[in-house]
Each structure stands twice: as structure tokens, then as C-alpha cells.
């Protein structure tokens, strides 16, 4: 495969990765009424929590880095996708641990909102049997 194709593939992966991050951040707001997308979003939040908790880099980051190297653009960037592309815009000079904590907090909050109706049903059920 030519370097131009690798570079085009890296751009496609970057775009998908960026859209995925937007989905993880805003999916709960945008798709809370769509049952199927709510499950997909909940799964993406769970995956995000696991990756952040165990310091696992996103597979899309690895794929994009590999494609950039194969395209001949020299050495791929190091670190996470968010830090490389978005940190200067969104998180100027903020330590990665803060980004991790905010990511986990956002994911946990959104998952909590998804589980809130379940907690309400369990609470009503407990009162009915008491």
C-alpha cells in the first residue's frame, strides 16, 4: 500500500476516533431517548471507565500511530489521542491525571443517570414489601 493510502487511512481513523470521543461525551444527552443507542453509549462509557482505570490506551490510537508510521511520516506521536490532538485546545498545560479524573467522572455521572430509573424502581419495590 502506498504512503498516501496509509495517510488517508490515518485521517479516516482520526476522524472516527474524534467522532467516537464526541459520542462518549455527548451521547447521553443526544441519545437518551433512543434505547439502542443508549445501550451502545452505556457500553462505550463502561469501556472508557475500564480503559482509564487500568491505563489502557485506545486501540484507535495504536492503529492511527501505526498508519502514520507506515505512511512514512516519521515517528508517530506518543501518548494518547486526546493529549496529542486536543490537549492544546481544550486542556492547555493540564496534567494527564486531571484529564483521566475528569473522564472517569463524566463517564460515571452519565452511567449513574442511566441507572437512576432502575434505582427508583428498586426503591419503590423495597417500600412496597416493607
Quick gist of this model?
By secondary structure, the protein is mostly helical. The chain is 79% helix and 0% strand.
Protein traits:
mainly alpha; 5 helices
Overall pLDDT level: 80
Number of helices: 5
Major sheet description: none
| Whole-angstrom Rg | 19 Å
Would you give an account of this structure?
- By secondary structure, this protein is an all-alpha fold.
- 79% of the residues lie in helices and 0% in strands.
- The protein contains five helices and no strands.
- The protein has helices at residues 3-30, 35-53, 59-70, 81-90, 96-129.
- The termini are far apart.
Walk me through the topology:
Layout: H1 3-30, H2 35-53, H3 59-70, H4 81-90, H5 96-129
Helix pairs in contact: 1-2, 1-3, 2-5
